[in-house]
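Subject: Protein record for review, amino acid sequence with backbone structure tokens
Category: Structural biology, sequence-to-fold work with a learned token vocabulary.
Format: Residues in single-letter code; tokens as whole numbers, each standing for a residue.
Body of memo: The sequence and its backbone structure tokens, given next.
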Amino acid sequence: MIAFLICFIFSIFVGVNEFSLVHFFQTDSIEWKVLITTRLPRTISIVIAGATLSLSGLLMQQITQNKFTSPSTVGTMQSARLGLILSLLFFPKASIFNRAFFSFIFAILGTFIFLALLHLIRARSSNLVPLVGIMFGNVISSLGTYFALQWDITQNVNAWLQGNFSLIDSTSYQLIYISLFSILGIIIGAHSFSVIGLGEDLTIQLGAAYDRILFIGILLISLGTAVVLLTVGNIPFIGLVVPNLISLYRGDYFKNNILYVLISGALFLLISDILARIIIFPYEIPVSVIVGIIGSVLFIYLLLKGEGS
């Protein structure tokens, strides 16, 4: 928690414009305006995005009963991207909230299709589930790329999905607040989601409504994924790596891990964004690049740790 607070404060002060503490609390100073219009909205967006993606990954792993699944490895993120592309294609003047709705609907559909594919596979191994998800996600991603190339909107799509917080300011980050509903929903439904991790048969025997819990879980995952995608772009690995790291050291009980996953996801993205801003200062690297590098190293560590145990 202390590390999170330190990184949160540090994130506010890191940037091209230097902050002078003498003028910091003067509401008519340039430093104050920079804080309110860019630094604070950016840091808030980072925290919410990291928490949303990590909790969505934790819930996805609970639903699929597989540690190698997340919104980015089962087609949820790619389906949300396809929804965005189609909204840009057919409704070029649509508002950001309408685009978010399109992405949300397609994320739901994509996730349900993935789960339907899993039901068709009788012999399911822990490695086969994410493999099916990655192949399905690649098909959806390729379909979206085809539409973008065919109708010459690739640059427009890339501008939305570059995975960068540098364009966040006081006028463009409000959409991220919608993902708070996803976070709160996962926290409130923690007990039910803990039960669903036991499997369909045991969940029904315990008197819980498996299908309803599953549907609500997919809604929450899709909502959070779509909103983060529309606000900051495609951020990989957080939903996959963070829940596994917490599980490695705290066990697999969903309800007990929620707070740790939430804070760790936000902290991971804060650190990545700070690095993205200082590595080639005063220039900035897209945070998705830093997350991809750190996330891939941590993922390899998790794989080796799993084999060792």
